[in-house]
Amino acid sequence: MKYLFILLSFAFVDNRCSESKIDQEAISVEYTTQSRGRYKNIKINKKTISIIDKKGNTPLSKTCSEAHWNILLKALKPINVENMPNLKAPSEDRFFDGAAIARLKIIYDGTTYETQPFDHGNPSKEIKELVKEILSISENIE
């Protein structure tokens, strides 16, 4: 697992030399939020941005621009993917319908790293920038 973390770290280094050593086609992120009557699933990989705004609906898919992809990679860089399941949510409003339930997944080469549920709009500080960028990218394509 340490080897995978080191390998993923190289994927998110800013210089082009390191980026060429990792298969960016094998990286994707997924953000899901849901509450009673509301649902949104955002999937982003190097080629596409896909959004489902209601369970059972057909996804709205657009091409992921190189600029959006680079912003996402920059936000991914500081995240320790192996520690994602251990991140603690800073609030618990989702327990009483005060906030939608959110989850973040990072998928690399068939391995999924997923957070515990957290309040939509209030992720832990370790993933806050990434969640912000995912939401920003998704809002700009709709």
From TrEMBL:
Identification of the protein by name: Uncharacterized protein
Domain of life where this protein originates: Bacteria
Organism expressing this protein natively: Flavivirga rizhaonensis
